[in-house]
Amino acid sequence: MKNRIVRWVAWAAAAVMVTLAIGALTGTPIEQTAHGAQHRAGGMRFIRIGDAPAGDDAPTAAADGSQVVVDNFSFTPATAAVPVGTTVTWTNHDDIPHNVVSPEQKFKSPVLDTDEKFSHTFEAAGTYKYYCSIHPRMTGQVVVR
Ligand SMILES: [Cu+2]
Q1: On the CB side of 104, how many CA atoms lie within 13 Å of its CA?
Q2: 118, part of any domain
Q3: Is the domain of 85 the same as that of 47?
Q4: Ligand 1 geometric centre to CA of 116 (Å)
Q5: Domain harbouring 81, CATH code
Q6: How far apart are CA 54 and CA 136, in angstroms?
Q7: 131 CA from centroid of ligand 1 (Å)
């Protein structure tokens, strides 16, 4: 059993080396090449060479607060912090309909089915609480600064 694992690891390492060599010859970016190798190696994650530590200026699409995912009866992030003037988009990834309602009537989405989106632009600083009126225990807030 142990020998099999060792052989498999050696094979996987060799596959990565070959792929990287091909990538170097063809000019394919290493990230793409490594990603391809990952798929050919059966989806094992340990050979992801492209996972270098991200710098401060790396794209962080989900972390800027303008995108809120609705899934599994919750809003993520529950607190979205955004600058004034940001358009926040909620996307329902649940297979249950939800909506996004401000109890102070600052905004109110229609009922969102799976994969439907709702956006609202926040033009003034403040804390905007909201909830799903279909499932009122689902709450979140947008903090605009
Ligand atoms: Cu809901």
Answers
A1: 8
A2: yes
A3: no
A4: 13
A5: 2.60.40.420
A6: 37
A7: 8
